[in-house]
């Protein structure tokens, strides 16, 4: 017996309906993915901006708090700050020559008398503490331009108690010390640099750092970006990307022409955010006292 079977498939109308549903679902999935990507890009940009502001505030806080005892600030403007900041400390062990002295070694395993955040070089200043044994008021820090800082094997007279021999240092300055240095004489190293808000070649505004000459009129090298972008520079204190404000010990706001030694505190305001992007600028403020004034 012969049986007929009928085969049923999708008709044109049904096929069009299925394709329309698939297109709708695909569009919804695509929109969701695009929205998620946009969200993650936005979140990453916000986190980067927030981290940049925090990094800038941390760097500035370290340098301002450790500003040189006698030099403090050399340039004070609403968008620029130039100062001498500490980059290392050590202790003199013995005089080697009229302009050379052995310094204590660094030790990774014991308390050290020498510590460098940055390696001092010919562009830096060494401050040597001079104690007047007759007149206590005669105590002072004398300035010497660094000629060289080299390493040498640690010697017994340059080791603190409990320290193993290691690499010590020899500091050579450009002018004679004017007498031998007592063992244990404190030595500080300072470097002159300028922080400023500047406009880069991409038309964005960044916080940058320039190293400046150790003495004389201010001459600074090429600028290096630290963080950003920030909002553009503006004369309006409530809108500018990076703002420095200066105060004396009584809390009075100082003008840019005020005497630099009168500065006791620096307030910083940072507003991140470049041109376009639709990002809400990150906002941070800090109040930093100069510890060594």
Give a concise summary.
This protein is of the alpha+beta class. The protein has one helix and 14 strands, in the order αββββββββββββββ.
Portion of residues within helices: 10-25%
Number of strands: 14
**How far apart are the termini?**
114 Å
> Main beta sheet, described?
6 strands, antiparallel, barrel
Structural class from helices and strands? alpha+beta
Order of helices and strands: HEEEEEEEEEEEEEE
Observed structural traits:
alpha+beta; 293 residues; elongated; four-stranded antiparallel sheet; six-stranded antiparallel β-barrel
Question: What is the element layout, followed by pairings?
Answer:
Elements: H1 12-65, E1 73-76, E2 80-97, E3 100-103, E4 115-116, E5 125-130, E6 140-153, E7 167-173, E8 186-199, E9 205-211, E10 224-230, E11 242-247, E12 253-254, E13 265-271, E14 283-289
Antiparallel strand pairs: 1-2, 2-3, 2-4, 2-8, 3-7, 5-6, 5-8, 6-7, 8-9, 9-10, 11-12, 11-13, 13-14
Task: Give an overview in words.
- The chain has one helix spanning 12-65; strands at residues 73-76, 80-97, 100-103, 115-116, 125-130, 140-153, 167-173, 186-199, 205-211, 224-230, 242-247, 253-254, 265-271, 283-289.
- It has 293 residues and is of the alpha+beta class.
- It has a six-stranded antiparallel beta barrel. Strands 12-11-13-14 form a four-stranded antiparallel sheet, covered by helices on one side.
- A hairpin with a 5-residue loop joins strand 11 (242-247) and strand 12.
- The termini are far apart.
